[in-house]
Amino acid sequence: MTIAKKHHMTVEERRSAGREARKAAPRTSHGSWTPAADRPDPLALLRAQDDDRMQDLVPIRWGRMSASPFAFYRGSAVLMAADLAPLPRTGLTVQLCGDAHLSNFGLYGSPERELLFDVNDFDETLPGPFEWDLKRLAASFVIATRHNGLGEDVARETALAAARSYRQHMAAYAEMRELDVWYSRVVADDLLQMARTSSTAQKASKSEVKTRLKMAEKGFAKARGHDSLQAAGKLTEVVDGARRIVDQPPLIMHLEALQDSENTHGLFEQYKATLEDDRRELVERYQIADLARKVVGVGSVGTRCIIVLMLGRDGDDPLFLQVKEAGPSVLEPFLGRSKFTHAGHRVVAGQRLMQAASDIFLGWMTGKPGGRPFYWRQLRDMKGSIDTELLKAPGLEILADLCGWALARGHARSGHRIAIASYLGVSDRFDQGIADFAQSYANQAEKDYDALAKAIKQGKISVEAGI
Residues 239, 245, 247, CA angle at the centre, nearest 5°? Predict the structure, then answer.
């Protein structure tokens, strides 16, 4: 038997590839951004996504996006993909999150019940140039910082912090062995240490340090309490001795179309077939007790999402799973179609590749009618988000540092980290370019938000605000 030998690039060859990428996309090319002369109408691009959504939920989507420029930015990943497409590319490919704004990073529990910090949304994941994720992340910090009224200097510092952290951590990963990169993770204790270090650098008082650490610990405790038992207490009630999901229209509703038990059983069996053997054995110990439609997110509102209440040992042993529609990534028109024919498989594979540890219940299936792709995951698994509107300058810079680190770790697992580190170099030239881009793109995002506000005022877009 002959085994075909694949060329394995040496470390120096990878470094050379990184330096060569500077010819296609000089580090200075990532600087300030101006819209293309033929830039598509932003609202037309976004409204085109409404066609295949549940129409009764579309006004809620626009209501959530109209809340602020940052909320608009969160829901407009397709628009940024179109804006990035004409720009020079490094050609250094990684598994992209595809929507790496700061609110798509947060806490969650590993299978070992360790509290991790990582990217936590992969609806748009697809292989592509590493800089696309970083640009979306940096611009999100500028928009969020401005929204908090902290001034342009702080806004730029947060963008710089994200880019600098990414570059420095990528350099560290370039020196690590493959398994060490794979096992690397950002844990809760890392967050506490960064808070202490930042406080020391800023010469914060002892009371300020204590307050920051106390807030972090409080957030960790809250995240650890986010599990299926907590969700059951909030989302269910016992009726005639049976636990059922409580309707909270329009956000949580039982729909007649979901109550076909035979169809539900078939879809559940299809999902189980995508799990590894040990996890399938675990899932089979539960039975479906109830299911309902749930409205989630900002940009995802209107896509089909179901929550499934499952019961194990008895009525006090709940497991909540979320079944979410997975369409084509918004990046595919610009980066090519996914190698996965099933969009749910694309999301699950991308999440497993990027995250340090992933939900053990990740799987996928094809829904009926219409053959829509879906993926499954836990509804709550020690998940915790950070309320960015409450953060001041030090907190936002710490968060930017963390997000840059987590993104570098995910990219290092999935791409040529040595080449990327070589491309980035040791100076702050790349960091400054990303910060320039972030400020320029934030200006455009705010203009696009103003266009949305105008369209709403003119009655061209219907909204349901505050939901």
Answer: 100
